[in-house]
Design brief:
mainly alpha, 81% helix, 0% strand, globular, 6 helices
Length: 140
């Protein structure tokens, strides 16, 4: 939590945003990462797999469309959601809800807290639709 809060505060300050909001957002993200670590090796490996998948997705989008890579919040949330869904033994329904609906919201909320971004229903809707289409596809 301490590391996440520090990074969140620095990010918010660097982006001219409310530092306290950045610290709180970063601490929540850091707490989620810490929870994954506390759940043990299975959860950590699942989190790392999610980070790897996120990296490949970002790399593909960069090469194909010139889109920029995700920020630290994106990767920390990928790690957290991947690790928590495995570590807490989520069933398919819970994984679907977490991955398709909750994760895109968490990403947007984190950017609001650390970077001063606005909530974009268009981006959220796109993420929900694309995640629901690709949910359960092999990603190896």
């Amino acid at each position: 939590m301490l590391a996440g809060g520090t990074i969140g505060g620095i990010t918010a300050y660097s982006n001219g945003q409310d530092v306290l909001s950045g610290v709180v957002t970063g601490a929540i993200i850091g707490g989620a990462v810490g929870a994954v670590v506390g759940l043990g090796s299975g959860a950590i490996l699942a989190g790392l797999k999610s980070v790897g998948t996120k990296f490949v997705s970002d790399l593909t989008a960069y090469i194909t469309f010139g889109k920029e890579f995700g920020k630290w919040e994106d990767y920390a949330i990928a790690f957290s959601f991947g690790g928590l869904t495995k570590g807490l033994n989520f069933g398919n329904t819970e994984k679907f809800i977490a991955d398709v609906f909750v994760r895109p919201a968490a990403v947007q909320l984190s950017k609001m807290g650390t970077r001063g971004k606005s909530l974009s229903m268009e981006k959220y809707s796109y993420d929900v639709i694309s995640r629901s289409i690709t949910f359960g596809m092999p990603n190896d």
